[in-house]
Amino acid sequence: MIKVLFISRPTLYSAPGGDTIQMLKTKEYLEKNYDVKVDILTNEKPVDYSQYDLLHFFNLIRPGAILKHLSSGLPYVISPIYVDYSEYDQHVRGGIFQLLSKIVGKGKTEYLKSIARWIKNGEHPGSKEYLTLGFDQSIQKILDECAVLLPNSNSELERIKDDFKIQSKTVIVPNAIDTALFNYDPSLEKKGVLCVARIEGVKNQLNLIKAIKQTDLDLTMIGKVAPNHSSYFEECKEEANHQVRYIDHISQEKLIEHYKKAKVHAMVSWFETTGLSSLEAAACGCNPVISDKGDQREYFRDEVFYCDPNSVDSIRDALLLAHYSDVSESLIHRINKKYTWLITAEKTMKAYRYAVSKKK
Fold first, then answer.
1. pLDDT tens, 7-40?
2. Which end of the chain is less enclosed by CB atoms within 10 A, N or C?
């Protein structure tokens, strides 16, 4: 048996997102199909490393949470989920961080964010070494010692290569859906727009609401308000009218009925590595409206409706086109064939076997 410790951000459960589902489903399908035992660590408690064969880190842009575990001497793999908020930070965010991001650049902006989370939320950066090294040098150190890097797409891998040197083995491990849960029922009437995402500026719900108000469509937003984004949520509520309703975070099982009823799923974000909820929604027969930011084109190709997240008119036009277009059954078929958690588990297991074989 291989014993693995998953390590991620402290807010994995309090502010759930696509990475939360990615971790839980990867654990579920690894344990179901292979001789693997997975534990998940999100807190600051001491770890008995002797009971594990390797570590699996998630969220490379939180390097402080990773660095402190490298002294364990265990081999490790990384699911980077390498998001890039620089365009949003420099042009949309507003306030002091927008000004600073234009001056200091991406890496130093992320470093300053981690310090701000520490001051405001008590969310410690994770490692004293991170405070000394900074963002970019911390990530490079982590990549230098990594056994296997597990990006969700070739696009994500190329973005990391643009910023850092990669010497480790790489295995592309796609994000996925639970095909037993998310499937298309052509007998059901579908109408309206759905957005399943954390409520935060980078997800761009405010512009989505503005666009909906220029149509005769209804919008349902589902997701927890992200930490430090309560003021953004208030802006969204002030902008919303009778066409918009909000539901707090719900389980994947309860999401199904919403996916099956909606004609469109809108994720007009400033950046997505995958857009996991868009993948789930598409499998249920929703027409996805997404922005061409990040790595989504590798998953969705030209079978979805793209928009400019900075243009309310562009979002509106994409929503209307998606709502009055036929469902893409070819996209549904491709998702069911290529993006399943069984495939994710198989490729992850390949990486584990390689990493353990290199154990000192």
1. 988 888 888 888 999 999 999 999 999 999 999 9
2. C
Work out whether the CA dihedral 237, 101, 119, 12 comes out positive or negative.
Answer: positive
> Coil, strand or helix: which one is 56?
strand
What is the separation, in whole angstroms, between the first and last Cα of the chain?
Answer: 18
- For residue 114, give both structure tokens: 């981690």
Q: Within a 10 A sphere around the Cβ of 349, how many other Cβ atoms?
A: 17
The residue range of the domain holding 315 is 193-338
Residue 111 binned pLDDT confidence (cut-offs 50, 70, 90): low
Phi/psi class of residue 259: alpha, beta or left (left: φ > 0; alpha: ψ in -120 to 50)?
alpha
pLDDT category, 183, cuts 50, 70, 90?
very high
Q: What's 329's domain CATH number?
A: 3.40.50.2000
Question: What does the alpha-carbon distance between residue 114 and residue 190 come to, in Å, rounded to a whole number?
Answer: 42
Which 3 state secondary structure label does DSSP give 192?
coil
Structural domain includes residue 49: yes
| Mean pLDDT computed over 303-310 | 97
* Kind and range of the H or E run holding 244: strand 244-247
Torsion region of 306: left, alpha or beta (phi above 0 gives left; psi -120 to 50 gives alpha): beta
Chain mean position to CA 44: 23
Residue 314 falls inside a structural domain: yes
Domain count, the chain: 2
Which pair of structure tokens corresponds to residue 196? 């399943």
Residue 107 binned pLDDT confidence (cut-offs 50, 70, 90): low
